[in-house]
Amino acid sequence: MAFEGLAQRLQGTLQKITGKGKISEADVKEMMREVRFALIEADVNLKVVKEFVKTVSERAVGQDVMKSLTPGQQVVKIVKDELTNLMGGEQNPIQFSRKPPTVIMMVGLQGAGKTTTTGKLATVLRKRHNKKPLLVAADIYRPAAIQQLETLGKQLTIPVFSLGTDISPVEIARQALKEAEEHHHDVVIIDTAGRLHVDEDLMQELKDIRELSKPDEVFLVVDAMTGQDAVNVAKSFDEAIGITGVVLTKLDGDTRGGAALSIRSVTEKPIKFVGMGEKMDALEPFHPERMASRILGMGDVMSLIEKAQANVDEEKAKELEQKFRTQSFTLEDFLDQLQQVRKMGPLDELLKMMPGFNKIKGIENAQVDEGQMGRVEAVIYSMTKEERATPEIINANRRKRIAKGSGTSIQEVNRLLKQFEEMKKMVKQMTNMQQKGKKKMKMPGLDSFFK
Amino acid sequence: MSFFKKLKEKITGTNESVTEKFKDGLSKTRNSFTSKVNDLVARFREVDEEFFEELEELLLQADVGVETVMELIDELKFEVKRKNIKDTAGIQSVISEKLVDIYNAGEEQMNELDIQDGRLNVILMVGVNGVGKTTTIGKLAARFKAEGKSVMLAAGDTFRAGAIDQLVVWGERVGVEVIRQSEGSDPAAVMYDAIRAAKSRNVDVLICDTAGRLQNKVNLMNELEKVHRVIGREIEGAPHEVLLALDATTGQNALVQAHTFKEATDVTGIVLTKLDGTAKGGIVLAIRSKLNIPVKFVGLGEGMDDLQPFDPEKYVYGLFAEGLEREEEE
Question: Which residues of A touch B280 (CB under 8 A)?
Answer without folding.
Answer: 228-229
